[in-house]
């Protein structure tokens, strides 16, 4: 099972695969670049006030904010999150 989230900007889509730690952000202008959460991702959401930030949350109780503005530049491996929050339990979407 997978989920695709489309941003209001039609150039971007984000997808996860059940029980996977990878969120793949698709930008039709560039090849895909994985955003790697350290545990299975339960939730992804675009930050409402920004076209280049996405939040992932998962089984590791972490909510991470990623800056996708560097997607068009060469990056070794995956992106690193710019902000992290640790909750008291696994983060799930209801």
UniProtKB/TrEMBL annotation:
It comes from Castanea mollissima. Gene3D superfamilies: YVTN repeat-like/Quinoprotein amine dehydrogenase (2.130.10.10). This is Uncharacterized protein. It comes from the Eukaryota. WD repeats lie at residues 37-70. The keyword Repeat applies. PROSITE patterns: WD_REPEATS_1, WD_REPEATS_2. The keyword Repeat applies. Keywords: Repeat, WD repeat.
